[in-house]
Amino acid sequence: xxxxxxxxxxxxxxxxxxxxxxxxxxxxxxxxxxxxxxxxxxxxxxxxxxxxxxxxxxxxxxxxxxxxxxxxxxxxxxxxxxxxxxxxxxxxxxxxxxxxxxxxxxxxxxxxxxxxxxxxxxxxxxxxxxxxxxxxxxxxxxxxxxxxxxxxxxxxxxxxxxxxxxxxxxxx
Length: 172
Prior knowledge:
Layout: H1 3-22, H2 46-50, E1 53-54, H3 57-60, H4 72-75, E2 81-90, E3 97-98, E4 100-104, E5 122-126, E6 132-133, E7 140-153, E8 156-169
Parallel strand pairs: 1-2, 5-8
Antiparallel strand pairs: 2-4, 2-7, 3-6, 4-5, 7-8
């Protein structure tokens, strides 16, 4: 591959990945393109895996982080088992695995640079005894129970919390 083609292909691939994670494009029915019962349960009962609702960042953006108002479709996700694609930001320096971290919509988003708005940040706290592998350069799916609440912390303002059940690589 020539340098010129890399300069064209890499940004194009990044754009497709960001659009995919944001919920743009994809299948009209919103399915991932494979039967949900083929997903590994990783300790979750099969019914739980099938009851998991896929949530994209456009849906999360429906939270008005200034007033706390949320749309009806967003409010319906409160307390539900969801899965959200994104990138991990460990809250400990140099952590290769963590029990708590942030999920962000794009690679490189961080609390040290201008962070995304609170409705585009998800604080993940893994179930007791579970750790998630941290690889901020590769997208992941996070599954867990969603809580919609504005939280002010040392990490910044965050609009969502998930009690994480599992984290696994995002596959196209």
